[in-house]
Amino acid sequence: MLATTTPSELEERRARLLRLHYELGRLGASARARKPRNGRWRLRVRRDGWSETVLCAGAEGVYAYVTAHGRLLGTTDEVRHVARLLIWMIERKQR
Q1: Of 6, 32, 34, 20, whose CA–CA distance to 77 is shortest?
Q2: What is the spatial distance between Cα 41 and Cα 92, in angstroms, rounded to a whole number?
Q3: H/E stretch holding 87
Q4: What 8-state DSSP symbol labels residue 39?
């Protein structure tokens, strides 16, 4: 069975990434949200020449933040914790 992503799920993922984008900005991190050609929204967080790409994964009301390298950061209910974790990862150049 092939799983397809509905437009409402894509919009929900986008909204959750923008929520993380806002929180990172509030904490002073440089972040940029983009929609690549494949339609999956990505959030790139940068600092001192180091960056981390974050995606929102999940479906049916259960979403989580994951890095492009596959590290699970936390659920979308833990936005502040995930933002602090990302800043910690970037400051220490951890993937």
Answers
A1: 20
A2: 25
A3: helix 79-91
A4: S
DSSP string, 41-75: -EEEEEETTEEEEEEEEEETTEEEEEETT--EEEE
State both tokens at 26.
């509030």
CB hemisphere CA count around 20 (13 angstroms): 36
CB 86 within 8 A of CB 29: yes
Q: d(Cα 2, Cα 44) in Å, to the nearest integer?
A: 28
Cα 5 from Cα 58, distance rounded (Å)? 10
pLDDT in tens, 22-37: 999 999 889 999 988 8
Q: What integer pLDDT is reported at residue 94 of this predicted model?
A: 58
34 DSSP β-pair partners: 42
